Amino acid sequence: MSVPAADTPGLERMYPYCCLGILMLIGLGSSAWAQAPDTPQMLRAETVADRIWYFRGESGQASAANQGYTSNAGFVLTDDGVLVFDALGTPALAQAMLQAIRTITTKPVRRVIVSHYHADHVYGLQVFKAAGAEIWARGEGRIYLDSDLARERLSERRTTLAPWVDERTRLLPADRWLDLRAGESMDFDLGGTAFRLISAGHAHAPDDLMLLVVAPRVLFAGDLYFNGRLPFVVDGNTRGWLLDIEAMRALQPRCIVPGHGDMSCAVDDDLRLTADYLQFLRAQMGAAVEELSGFDEAYAAIDWSAYADLPTFEAANRRNAYSVYLEMQVEMLGAAAEQAR
Ligand SMILES: [Zn+2]
């Protein structure tokens, strides 16, 4: 999960927190710790369903120690080639991903779907592009590409993730920018496999995009889904996030691969937890704004016991609450202006 939009003021501020909270090292990712830091790590694909795999990034923030492997990606094997979802956070990781794919099939990678333009999901795009894949993303991804945030992030990563991100690492635009508004979806077929792209609106980033593999009902949700823990609200768009959750429910996915952390097949429980939590934040912070209470005072008076034992509560809750407090101020000011007309 990671960053937000270029033109969204709290994004950069919140970015370092997007990837916090996942506390376990999992799978092959842990090999990075055993290897010399200058040895690219090997990735192993985890099976999701028949002909569907994912790569499970490590916990915590991107660092030279984990080689930037902090997000997930996945791929689907079709009769005509491979469809990849997200490209990981460095070209070296994408190369490792490609090698892992090559152990499963010699078919070409035809297409890469970008869940959203944040550094930890897109710095590997150039590897797939060079391998002949076509990149698809929502048009709103251009907001990030055109932003100072994107340039600053790349500059920072060339330092913090050296040598894995360097002067040759580039931000690639999509080959096809999709014009999908909130609530819209788009079906396509690749090699006899049916896919659906879903744009439920801006929740984590302006270009949030999910991919459903239709028959097995496996959903790649990018940074819109959290399993068994609190979400990182990031830039205060809980209204959009609740719409996304409804869109996910309507898809009735059997399993969801999130942008970070383990795949989950307890979809109903996870969606209920996230939705209940976001609604609780909106109700509590909405009441505080209505009563003109200060944030600290309001936060201290709220009974958080329903959520306090969940992983990521300490890391995420206060920041989430503050983000929603600001969001509710904006919503109420907007409503008041409307009434005054
Ligand atoms: Zn993100």
Describe the protein in words.
The chain is 37% helix and 17% strand. By secondary structure, it is of the alpha/beta class. The chain has one domain (11-266): Metallo-beta-lactamase, Chain A, CATH 3.60.15.10. Helix 9 (267-290) packs across helix 11 (313-340). It is globular. Residues 1-36 have low confidence and may be disordered. Zinc ion (ZN) is lined by residues 1-3, 18, 116, 118, 204-205, 223.
What keywords describe this structure?
single chain; 341 residues; alpha/beta; Metallo-beta-lactamase, Chain A; seven-stranded mixed beta sheet; five-stranded mixed beta sheet; disordered N terminus; binds zinc ion
Total count of strands: 12
Radius of gyration: 20 Å
Biggest sheet statistics: 7 strands, mixed
Q: Taking strands numbered 1, 2, ... along the chain, how are they ordered across the largest sheet?
A: 1-2-3-4-5-6-7
- How many helices? The count is 11
Order of helices and strands: HHEEEEHEHHEHHEEEEEHEHHH
Tell me the number of structural domains.
1
Q: What structural class should be given to the helix and strand makeup?
A: alpha/beta
CATH homologous superfamily, by name? Ribonuclease Z/Hydroxyacylglutathione hydrolase-like
> What's the multimeric state?
single chain
Q: In percent, how much strand structure appears in the residues?
A: 15-25%
- What would you call the shape? globular
Rounded mean pLDDT score: 87
Ends apart, CA distance between termini: 39 Å
CATH fold name, please? Answer: Metallo-beta-lactamase, Chain A
Low-confidence stretches: 1-36
Report the helical percentage: 25-40%
- Return the CATH architecture: 4-Layer Sandwich
Bound molecules: zinc ion
